[in-house]
Inverse folding.
């Protein structure tokens, strides 16, 4: 018997509306998810964002990854008149993840120390005009090269995944504003991706940028190395770094997910975490994404369905 069978009244069905871009519908709404959810009393219903929500309901729950002002307004109006529909998640809270400075602020307030491990963020500074960056500000913060130049906006818009590895001050001349300069931390070429769906948590390993040696730093001058959508690149694991990497302790993963879920007020996100090669008890959060690619997880169908059942059966803790 499933965890929820005793909660669901005989014949009861739950309507969950989803409002996503066509590309996301294709990747997230796999037939296997639709089927699994259906067998567990959840009907996933596509929402047309250009038609009033009133005409498309009723909904027990709405999940979404659209953030045009018009969609936010429709959602807000619908919520006001349908307080029983759970909106996963409120647009004003999601928007904190659309900026690479505010995204990491919640992490800096967490006090996590489990099994000697700590969780923080890399040093970073926002510069408006990288061509004439405020070097004093950078040095005051103790920011050290190499750095990754990341676009401030992380809203899925054009260029929001286009990054640059910058090896020294001269390299900053190649950048365009506005940019977040984040210290590059050697981490053994493996990123841990913690997927959260309410109280459901799953951590997987992925290939990342390789370490940069002191030797390489001495020889590279004024160079920048552009890259984009690294998490979608090939999965080839040269040298077996990903396979060999030890996972972070499960209690650390669970506590980080729980604490961030509470601090951000969000249910659907993932967290990219690296482990400092020099200090392996030091974990660093480098990125948080709203409504990430859950379909890449093994058994994502029960993962998502159980989360939706948590919401509609109001079992979330
Ligand atoms: N501070 C850092 N130190 C070392 N490597 C980093 C750092 N920040 C990012 N990286 C590497 O660059 C990749 C891309 O960075 P980031 O995750 O910030 O970009 P993104 O475009 O938002 O990614 P996503 O596709 O997950 O949304 C990371 O997965 C990691 O491999
Ligand atoms: O492309 P996928 O569906 O796999 O998911 C990616 C998602 O793309 P989307 O645009 O389709 O939502 C990205 O969103 P935007 O920043 O572009 O908004 C971002 O969240 C990535 O981190 C996700 O990849 P993952 O972190 O899971 O590897
Ligand atoms: Mg990332
Ligand atoms: Mg991201």
């Amino acid at each position: 018997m499933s965890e929820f069978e005793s909660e669901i009244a005989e014949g009861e069905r739950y309507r969950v509306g989803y409002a996503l871009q066509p590309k996301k519908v294709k990747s997230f709404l796999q037939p296997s998810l639709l089927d699994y959810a259906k067998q567990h009393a959840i009907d996933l219903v596509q929402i047309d964002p250009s038609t009033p929500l009133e005409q498309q309901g009723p909904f027990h729950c709405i999940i979404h990854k659209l953030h045009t002002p018009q969609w936010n307004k429709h959602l807000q109006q619908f919520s006001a008149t349908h307080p029983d529909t759970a909106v996963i998640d409120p647009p004003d809270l999601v928007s904190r993840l659309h900026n690479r400075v505010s995204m990491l602020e919640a992490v800096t307030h967490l006090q996590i120390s489990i099994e000697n491990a700590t969780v923080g963020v890399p040093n970073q500074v926002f510069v408006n005009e990288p061509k004439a960056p405020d070097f004093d500000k950078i040095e005051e913060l103790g920011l050290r090269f190499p750095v990754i130049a990341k676009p401030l906006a992380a809203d899925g818009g054009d260029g929001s995944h286009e990054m640059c590895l910058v090896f020294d001050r001269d390299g900053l001349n190649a950048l365009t504003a506005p940019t977040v300069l984040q210290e590059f931390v050697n981490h053994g070429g493996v990123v841990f991706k913690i997927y959260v769906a309410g109280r459901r948590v799953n951590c997987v390993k992925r290939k990342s940028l390789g370490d940069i040696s002191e030797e390489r730093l001495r020889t590279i001058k004024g160079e920048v190395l552009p890259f984009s959508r690294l998490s979608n690149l090939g999965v080839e694991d040269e040298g077996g770094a990903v396979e060999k990497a030890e996972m972070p302790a499960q209690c650390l993963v669970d506590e980080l997910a729980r604490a961030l879920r509470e601090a951000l007020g969000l249910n659907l996100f993932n967290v990219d975490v690296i482990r400092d090669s020099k200090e392996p008890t030091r974990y660093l959060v480098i990125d948080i994404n709203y409504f990430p690619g859950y379909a890449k997880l093994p058994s994502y169908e029960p993962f998502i369905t159980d989360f939706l059942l948590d919401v509609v059966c109001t079992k979330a803790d």
Q: What stands out?
A: Residues 257 and 314 are 20 Å apart (CA to CA). The chain has a mean pLDDT of 91. The chain has ten helices and 15 strands.
